[in-house]
Amino acid sequence: MREWRAGRPAPPGDRLPEFTGERAIPGEVDADLLNEHFARYTFAARLARGKRVLDAGCGAGYGSAELARTARSVTGLDRAREAVDFARAHYQLPNLFFEQASCAALPHPDGAFDLVVAFEVIEHLEDWREFLIEARRVLAPAGQFIVSTPNKLYYAESRGPAGANPFHVHEFEFEELRGELTRVFPHAAMFLENHVAAVAFQPDAPDSAVEVRVDAGAPAADNAHFFVAVCAHRTQLGNPTFVFVPSAANVLRERERHIALLERELGAKDAWLDKAQRDLAEFSREHGKLMETMNREVQERRARVVELQEELERSNQWAAGLNREVEARRARVVELQGELERSNAWAIGLNREIEEARARIVRLEEALTAVRASRWYRLGRKAHLGPTI
Predict the structure, then answer these.
(1) Axis crossing angle, helix 251-373 with helix 375-382, rounded to the nearest 10
(2) Euclidean distance between CA atoms 230 and 135, whole angstroms
(3) CB 68, CB 1: distance < 8 Å
(4) For helices 174-184 and 128-138, what crossing angle results, to 10°?
(5) Most buried in the list 9, 193, 277, 326, measured by CB within 10 Å?
(6) CB neighbours (10 Å) of residue 76?
(7) What's the confidence (pLDDT) of residue 92?
């Protein structure tokens, strides 16, 4: 069996995609953050002994494995195929099973489980009210339902400029959560989960007794990091304060390591920024040169445009003059055509007159010939009388 314990990373090359805010993944998140999630399962493990347990929204499966240490059987359920595959590969126990399904439609009969847990799930669901009803349906009459969710007020403040978690559909304030839970479950014991600083004195010996002192003080729901509720059909007895001290609980050392990691990341980012600034300066110089070249080309092209516009204007003026000349010549052609028509008409009339004159000449010649041939004309000529023809 391959397993993960709080504070230990998953084997290299055997991981889910990196932490995005949708689910906590061993080896991909800060130890303090992962312990914050793991602590909820240690809280629930006290109520899981010898019971049939459903871990709804089990994610990577590390919490289901923790519950399986004391439970009769544990079913880890998640809608994401990659999460279920990861859990099956890493947490293999005879009483531990993983399945892919929706929290709003649990594939189990009524009363199938003695304990149902849903840690950091309800705020991810569109149909979270249907999930509460489904959790009550699969819960045995004497069973318990443990649900956790971030405090909307604290969570919005802690995320700051990062803004709302894109994977959260609906976040809850304390009284809203209590009201929604008691609509479905008659009894709901509310707990405030806080990741607090503490000082631990641990003897250098295994299996030593544990004593915990928690300073008394009125709990402030608005300031809590998370809300945890233990719900049931029947009245519950006892709700003691529970403290989880993980093996990787040396907060100062973890923070020092985290600060060193952040400093290395900051150094890498500074180096990247310096390089980016140098690249930007080089880009600015190249951009300036390019702009100078482009400006010169633009000025040259503008001058050429002006030159072409002047040439076009001259061409337009020449074309206008040519058009006027063409129009004048067209008018002259029309005028000449009129004169030609008149000349043609005069020539036709003259031809008629010539033809008429020729006809008269022919007639006169015929008349003259007749006169010359007459006897009277010949007698007159002999007598030297009459006109000479």
Answers:
(1) 60
(2) 12
(3) no
(4) 40
(5) 193
(6) 29
(7) 95
